[in-house]
Amino acid sequence: MYRTHTCGELRSAQAGLTVTLAGWVQTVRKLSKSITFIDLRDRYGITQLLFGEELSQQLTENPLGREFVIQVQGEVTERTSKNAQLPTGDIEIKVSSYTILNKSMTPPFTIQDDTDGGDDLRMKYRYLDLRRQTVKKNLELRYAVNRAARNYLHENSFMDLETPFLIKSTPEGARDFVVPSRMNPGEFYALPQSPQTFKQLLMVSGYDRYYQIVKCFRDEDLRADRQPEFTQIDCEMSFVEQEDILSMFEGLIKYIFNTVKGIDYTDHVERMTWEEVMWNYGNDKPDIRFGMKLLNLKSAFTLGGKLTAHGELIKDAGFGVFDNAETVLAIAAPGCSEYTRKQTDELTEWVKRPQIGMQGLVYIKCNADGSLKSSVDKFYSEDKLKAIAEAVEAKKGDLILVLAGREERTRKAMSELRLEMGRRLGLRKENEFKLLWVLDFPLFEYAEEENRWVARHHPFTSPKPSDIGVMIENSPVIAEAEKYLEHPYNHIKANAYDMVLNGNEIGGGSLRLYQRELQEKMFAALGMTPEEALHKFGFLLGAFEYGAPPHGGIAFGFDRLCSILGGSESIRDFIAFPKNNSGRDVMLDAPSTIDDKQLLELSIQLNTSGRDSL
Amino acid sequence: MYRTHTCGELRSAQAGLTVTLAGWVQTVRKLSKSITFIDLRDRYGITQLLFGEELSQQLTENPLGREFVIQVQGEVTERTSKNAQLPTGDIEIKVSSYTILNKSMTPPFTIQDDTDGGDDLRMKYRYLDLRRQTVKKNLELRYAVNRAARNYLHENSFMDLETPFLIKSTPEGARDFVVPSRMNPGEFYALPQSPQTFKQLLMVSGYDRYYQIVKCFRDEDLRADRQPEFTQIDCEMSFVEQEDILSMFEGLIKYIFNTVKGIDYTDHVERMTWEEVMWNYGNDKPDIRFGMKLLNLKSAFTLGGKLTAHGELIKDAGFGVFDNAETVLAIAAPGCSEYTRKQTDELTEWVKRPQIGMQGLVYIKCNADGSLKSSVDKFYSEDKLKAIAEAVEAKKGDLILVLAGREERTRKAMSELRLEMGRRLGLRKENEFKLLWVLDFPLFEYAEEENRWVARHHPFTSPKPSDIGVMIENSPVIAEAEKYLEHPYNHIKANAYDMVLNGNEIGGGSLRLYQRELQEKMFAALGMTPEEALHKFGFLLGAFEYGAPPHGGIAFGFDRLCSILGGSESIRDFIAFPKNNSGRDVMLDAPSTIDDKQLLELSIQLNTSGRDSL
Description:
Two copies of one chain form a homodimer.
Chain A: E1 18-32, E2 35-42, E3 45-51, H1 53-61, E4 69-78, E5 91-102, H2 119-124, H3 126-129, H4 133-155, E6 159-160, E7 178-180, E8 188-190, H5 196-204, E9 209-217, E10 229-238, H6 242-261, E11 270-273, H7 274-281, E12 295-296, H8 320-324, E13 327-333, H9 341-352, E14 362-366, E15 372-374, H10 382-391, E16 399-405, H11 407-424, E17 435-439, E18 444-447, E19 452-455, H12 468-473, E20 496-501, E21 504-511, H13 516-525, H14 530-543, E22 551-557, H15 558-565, H16 596-601, E23 604-606
Parallel strand pairs in A: 3-5, 6-9, 11-17
Antiparallel strand pairs in A: 1-2, 1-4, 2-3, 4-5, 7-8, 9-10, 10-22, 12-13, 13-16, 14-15, 14-16, 17-20, 18-19, 20-21, 21-22
Helix pairs in contact in A: 4-6, 4-15, 13-14
């Protein structure tokens, strides 16, 4: 060993001990001709080194630069002026000798929490960026979550079973990354988008409880904060019902909260159906740390139709904007009734931005004195405004915000506005964590381009038992495209659930199909011919004929979970070597061209003009 | 939950309890009209079910087949005739009702330890093969090793840090699997052959101790028992010397022995240099559970030349086979002096097989009475034979076996013969585990085809400190190919080590280069131009300029380690979904062709005729 101790462990109890340390030069402070202080850094901490007269002289002749790697011998000494900020702040090392193990050029940016390096520079020199305390803390948190998840799952009889990476291409939804096979010319492996079918086979094989923390791959156009390779905590259980899975995995997340963040999450984890969250929050992963629920002043969002819109409140007032809109939605922003004209104008501009895309914003001020004042006073009497205020549960002092327009856009816009107001009002507290199960998703979604059904979760999700008949007895064919909403398949609910944390989907899963007949019906519903289904998933259909148990599972987005626990918006900060938005690793300069010989061996050639024909 | 208990947990203490079990029908035994026994199986065990008269009647009408999935309710009852073989053998369940959860066709082979299924059938129906107790035990062992390794490494401050799978192709030695990038037309990612450079960057970043249990990929022609994707326990440490790594990782393996196998490996782990093992055992991963060391009767194997051959013992006897051979090697097989002519003939045939490739076998019997009898009595007097016997440490009753021929082939053949004799004589005991460190490998190997040096371990391995000067001061160019043995580079020793278990290399590693100058010299030694080196490994050379610490590590072949601990020759038995020797997954039928649209999107096309030009 190049050291007897790390830079994080010495305390005054060790005073008098002769030690050897090794690490990086964080700072050099020459106090006088005879005293130089150096902060020595390693993974475990920082220790102050004191260089006396003779060694300081040497340092003047041969200066140590930032990030030099050195080894020092010396005596642990109690400091006269202690540094309470530092765990090792009670001591320093009186250096007797030192060796330079490696030099360093001046780093292209400072190795500090608030670095002066831009994103591109930091990514190119990621090995230096990883030295920064903030990034290191993120990766330490990631490892702690990894460790906690494994411990919890192990204690609950889950087994880590590895599934293959070189599999078969069965694109459903997202694009596969593919790998040409040299030994099988003209053929390709695919990288897994998830180990879905394998974990199901393991259930068929009787392994009962499976988990894996595993890389998955999707060749999608990268939006901000998506990565072509990402990590899942992937789990599956046999002989379970939905309730078993919900309680097992809220247990997992609570365990992680406790172990990693020291948070004792004793609250009951709330559960809402997909219809409820869409109705009340306008999206399927609501942030429930605050209220500000949506009030629907016009028509239901083509949900089950069980929830009633308050259409009568705005009817017959002659206000064209509301009358002609497909949907009119309101929220009550608490304590904002005294917004100035400038502030409401700014909010109006905010909803008119292209990302939000609304035409305008209507507001109703619920003044502290009980009076109401709106931007649509011309059309609505105070009584009518009062009725709206009551319906949206606005209190004195609140500001009601109303959006109107096309259904989907308006719903999304109001959902965004709600989150924005929550943020502005400090209701999305960084240290508050609020879990939510969203249940009973629709099984299918309508794909307009192809006039067919696609699986909302994935093709292996089972319908609610009460909907099995609907699925079996009806043809999936959509005879009249414009009437797809009336098709029986549009109302089938899935045995599917998402776990939402502070407005982010952190995990999702379902109870699976496990009977060949129903799985075949599902493939047919998605527009596959029996031949296609057999070609792509023959192994799974086969497996279901030999005693497949009822089973279900869940997968958590590990990168996302870590970033939320770490209080960051960006998953990239929690990945050691991430790729940029073009899928490039700028440090490696990958992807890159390969040799002609490699191409020949793989029986492929480039065809960069062929894309134009797509 | 479909069950209150598993099939492995009920004991007589639970007698009287009403329980629900779920699992697979292992066997149905109809004892009489009124009694049917069914063995119900799940991951945790087998429980006997007793169906009374009424239910037996139902079973007669609707029989339960093997591998049906059923759920039963009933009362735990103490058995009259207990089965001591079974943990649950004291009880049975008096079934009150049952439900068929899923049916099963008759499996294509029996789900038993000694199945009637051939290899191909078992691989096609791997999900059924995985149900067999033997395969399940293997995967349980694999998980136990995984868990033990993680616990040990965690306790020793190692962090699991994930490295990317979509990286840059830098083929050195083995071929890369590549992945066309859709977003970067004409460019490719590569799948990692190991996370080597990333773990080194993590050391440069100061993470100090890293580990990962991680998939790696090599596109090699598959010999028996190689897989295109395989798993490594990959580790790296900073500020260490060789001794630190050896003791840390023999600790790991001992911990695994203890935790997984209950073996307290207190023996000192033997250490031998590469020269010693090549000299004494003829290969670099000797099985040292037994002796039978090689005696060299002619010339040294172009090793360092420090070890002396016993050439004088066979000189000047006029025996052309020995006189003309490059190498003559002997071993003494203990207790085999009474081998019959038939037996020695059979051994001669054995060494003449094409896999071994020798011309013949010379033997010397050391009879119990002290006399010696050989197949070359014509040339060697009993005195000379006695001298040979003494040199090879043969005792009375031993049989000396001698091979002669071209150096490399003879050495390999003798190494194989030694292992074969060890096997035949029962010296390779299944329950004995013997670890060995092989140290001081050569840094370079000579590649005849290209008349250049290749890295024996990999291009990131450092030379012994005493050889750094030799490496720096000499040109790697081999002016005269036939004199490569005399080139100074041929004698440079590496800071590299392999861990050998029972004749298998289970892990290997090295102290790394960490200075740019030396790393550049290494790349040059391997025939790379400075431009190539920068193009391929610029990020690593760059990293070494910003304070790279001394570091080193090791990687264990996880599949192999598990198979040895499980007492099997085949790693495939320890992989849930392995590929066959053509790299195919016969269950999935992968690799397979992909759609033209996928090819177009990836900017590639097939070129199956291009290979012919290679």
